[in-house]
Amino acid sequence: VRRQRQMCIRDRYEEPKGTAPVIEGVENGGNYYATQKITVRDADNDLASVTVNGKQEAGTEISLSADNQNNQKKEYTIIAEDRRGNSTSCKITINPCSDLQKRISHLSVDTVKVTDKALVQNTLKDAVTAVENAAEEEKTILAEVKTKCETLLAKIDEMTQPLSLIHISEPTRL
Questions:
Q1: What is the distance, to the nearest Å, from the Cα of residue 13 to the centroid of all Cα atoms in its chain?
Q2: Which SS3 state, helix, strand or coil, does residue 99 take?
Q3: How many other C-beta atoms are found inside a 10 Å radius of the C-beta of residue 61?
Q4: Which site among 77, 131, 145, 167 is 20 to 30 Å from 59 CA-CA?
Q5: Contact, 26 vs 94, CB < 8 A?
Q6: Separation CA 124–CA 100 (nearest Å)
Q7: CA distances to 23, 27, 56, 136 from 104, in Å
Q8: The pLDDT of residue 12
Q9: In this structure, what DSSP letter does residue 83 have?
């Protein structure tokens, strides 16, 4: 019985050299509430392309936003590649600022409860964080959200303060 010798031919794979480009200004999987400014950097200075949702970008500084006119979130995939084969990708979601308004639209100083505190605090945090790169019309909405959150939190704090003990003194006798 003759045995046939089998040869395994492997494809050669080489690791890309250098460092991959870096996408700054957002985190992969991030969820944002206003325009985001993104910068792509490549330490090796051999950036070949930057694409957003498959479309080639002209530069390395990009502004991305939600569809604020239609109050629709937008999802983006950013890919940066260099000439050596290194690449970095990042997926983010940008929600319209109106989503923050909607979060607390059911609350007023007359209806807010202590149990709403975490919701209001998180909304305030998101509004304050979003202001950094926001467009002017977004800043207006975010300022309104911030003011309403601060008012609601003041009311919640007022509701959680212990009642002051009222000292009733005896009437003075003449």
A1: 37
A2: helix
A3: 13
A4: 131
A5: no
A6: 9
A7: 33, 26, 38, 22
A8: 47
A9: T
Bridge-based pairing of strands 74-82 and 31-32 is unpaired
3-class secondary-structure state, position 38? strand
pLDDT digits 0-9 by tens, 66-85 = 988 888 999 999 999 999 99
- Res. 165: pLDDT tops 70: no
**From the CB of residue 50, how many other CB atoms can be counted at a distance below 10 Å?**
23
Q: Which residue has the tokens 């260099």?
A: 82
Of 97, 32, 109, 86, which Cα lies nearest the Cα of 64? 32
Q: What are phi and psi of 98, to 5 degrees?
A: -60, -20
- Distance in angstroms (rounded) separating the CA atoms of residues 53 and 77: 5
CB 33 within 8 A of CB 73: no
Distance CA 33, CA 50 (A): 23
pTM score, two decimals?
0.76
Cβ atoms of residues 56 and 80 within 8 Å = no
Query: For tokens 């008012």, what's the residue?
Result: 151
Look up residue 67 and give its DSSP letter: B
Structure tokens at 111: 């209806």
Q: Are 56 and 50 in contact (CB under 8 A)?
A: yes
Centre a 10 Å sphere on the Cβ of residue 62 and count the other Cβ atoms it contains.
Answer: 18
Query: What are the structure tokens assigned to 104, written together?
Result: 């607390």
